[in-house]
Amino acid sequence: QVQLVESGGGLVQPGGSLRLSCVASGFAFEYYAIGWFRQVAGGQREGVLCINTDNSVASLTESMKDRFTISRDNAKNTVYLQLNNLKPEDTAVYHCATDLKRLCRWEFAYWGQGTQVAVSS
Predict the structure, then answer these.
(1) What angle do CA 40, 15, 97 make, to 5 degrees?
(2) In sequence order, what DSSP letters do the residues of 70-90 get, joined into one string?
(3) Least buried of 9, 44, 103, 117, by fewest C-beta within 10 Å?
(4) Could you read off the pLDDT of 25-77 as tens digits, one per residue?
(5) CB neighbours (10 Å) of residue 36?
(6) What is the pLDDT confidence band of residue 108, given thresholds at 50, 70 and 90?
(7) Torsion region of 49: left, alpha or beta (phi above 0 gives left; psi -120 to 50 gives alpha)
(8) Are 2 and 34 in contact (CB under 8 A)?
């Protein structure tokens, strides 16, 4: 079955960086788009970035590209989310997700348990 396992979160000071990883299994990873969304407790999901099979990147909010980057390593079935210049408002649980489509549509059917990112001084 589809499994997505995130890691790399933690506590970081404002201005710091983190690299999140998402290891996928149970499907042909290289043929599908993978995205990240974030969610604070009791809040709505917010799309972060999504990477298509051709490595093009989609975002719902252009500002997400200002400080964050996404990449994929098909040989390792892994997607990375690089978070730079982190701000307190970036605090959330970050999930990777897919709907098993080649292009990002932000309608995810599968997602992992998430990794907590906390930005505080």
Answers:
(1) 40
(2) EEEEGGGTEEEEEE-S--GGG
(3) 44
(4) 999 999 999 999 999 988 999 999 999 999 999 998 888 889 999 999 999 99
(5) 27
(6) very high
(7) beta
(8) no
